[in-house]
Amino acid sequence: MGEPKRQIRLGVSAIGMGYHIAAWRHPDASPGGNMELAHFIRSAQAAERGLFDMFFLADGVGIRMYDEPPGALARSSKNVQFEPLTLLSALAMVTTHIGLIATASTTWNEPYHVARKFASLDHISGGRAGWNVVTSVTAQEAQNFGHEAPPDYDHRYDRAAEFVEVVRGLWDTWEDDAFLRDKASGINFNPSKLHILNHRGRHFTVRGPLNVARTPQGAPVIVQAGASEPGRELAAATADVVYAAAQTLEDAQAYYASVKSRMAKYGRHPDALKIMPGLMAIPGRTRQEAHDRYEILQELIHPVVGLAAIAGSLGDLSAFPLDGPVPEPTNPRMLSRARILLDMARRDNLSIRQLYLAIAGGNGHRTIIGTPADIADAMEEWFTQGAADSFNILPPWLPGGLEEVVDQVVPELQRRGLYRTAYEGRTLRAILGAAPAPNRHAGAARRAAE
Ligand SMILES: Cc1cc2nc3c(=O)[nH]c(=O)nc-3n(C[C@H](O)[C@H](O)[C@H](O)COP(=O)(O)O)c2cc1C
């Protein structure tokens, strides 16, 4: 038997009501679904039926939307959400295989808390936990933790790198066979297999040990999302999966090559990291049907909500005519994103209204509206041309937008031999084709004995 064929993998980013800014108003959506457990159960079970690698919850520790123009927040559903680890603990009870990924900030948490919570989720889910490592960039979040603004860039990433190091150290507290739990002798664990971390660094002093036993995966899976130089470096050094955003094949290829080429210096094989660009996929039996489905949501965008979607980068444009040209921003909030939006507007000669309609769905991610074959073609192109190992599906609305991908696109990928027909294992690491994480101390003991 030769090497198993490399196959496309899928995750789903299942935050709130879905990605489209009018998602909660979709005729078939439960408008309060972002605070209903049943809504997430239906989505998680759909993704598992579709044999997805992971159910992914983005997060922020605060409402991250400005009320700009005024009235936009009152018309948005991006206001309340479950704390993701709590939600995933509940979803672990109604799923059996799919990986459960929560976002947790390295800026507004302490490593001991994060290590403990994800280790607990790994036990509760039977080895399916993953941590999406992010740094928090918004002032709204900073203001919930006694600061006016987030720390500057280098500080955030320096802290993030040390944060991950401490968390992984804590996850190695107990060797796999530390617990004897021998009723007869009365020995609960072997003290030589307990390791106290004693970490002292620039940002953290953490003694340990962790008060959660070694987890089923050895260590929860690490996902990372961050596109800058330090973000790529952190991914290459530590991540099992990277969530990325790219619109064109060339950009995705450049990002893919850039992250994978950094791995060798950390002693890692490029296959040890899966690169997962976001993809908004809207399937229909015909292209017309797919476009009609998308139009249902587009028509539900109130102009104030549309303007808010671009205000995050271009500022409040409500003083300009909606059907006039996009003005040069005087004080862009997010420079790189403002440039992308302006380039888009200039290239396609878009009015303000057309610009917000163009980004209302994918928010900077690639969007494919078409037949299942069109969507499978688009995935296959990036997958075979060095741009992606997997895709994080961004459903325009939940759960229906996800169910359509599961029921239409997954069978098309399977027909092409590009997608699994059953899960390969019970833990997320097994599903990703990775071995359980080794414990650094067990390795050291073995090496010393050799
Ligand atoms: C695709 C993608 C998804 C992200 N998701 C989140 C998120 O859910 N929560 C969050 O606080 N930050 C999120 N981030 C922010 C990053 O973690 C990062 O800290 C931020 O983008 C600034 O760093 P960068 O310039 O390296 O991207 C995301 C970034 C990207 C590129």
What's a quick, concise take on this entry?
With 450 residues, the chain is of the alpha/beta class. The chain has helices spanning 37-49, 84-92, 111-124, 139-142, 153-171, 229-238, 249-261, 287-298, 303-314, 335-347, 352-359, 372-384, 400-415, 428-431, 440-449; strands at residues 9-13, 54-57, 99-105, 129-134, 179-182, 187-189, 199-200, 205-206, 221-224, 241-244, 274-283, 366-370, 390-393. It is 38% helix and 13% strand.
Please provide a written account of the structure.
By secondary structure, the protein is α/β, with parallel strands linked by helices. The protein has two domains: 9-283 and 366-449, Luciferase-like domain (TIM Barrel); 302-359, no CATH class. Helix content is 38%, strand content 13%. It contains 15 helices and 13 strands. It has helices at 37-49, 84-92, 111-124, 139-142, 153-171, 229-238, 249-261, 287-298, 303-314, 335-347, 352-359, 372-384, 400-415, 428-431, 440-449; strands at 9-13, 54-57, 99-105, 129-134, 179-182, 187-189, 199-200, 205-206, 221-224, 241-244, 274-283, 366-370, 390-393. It binds flavin mononucleotide. The site of flavin mononucleotide has 18 residues, from strand 3 and strand 10.
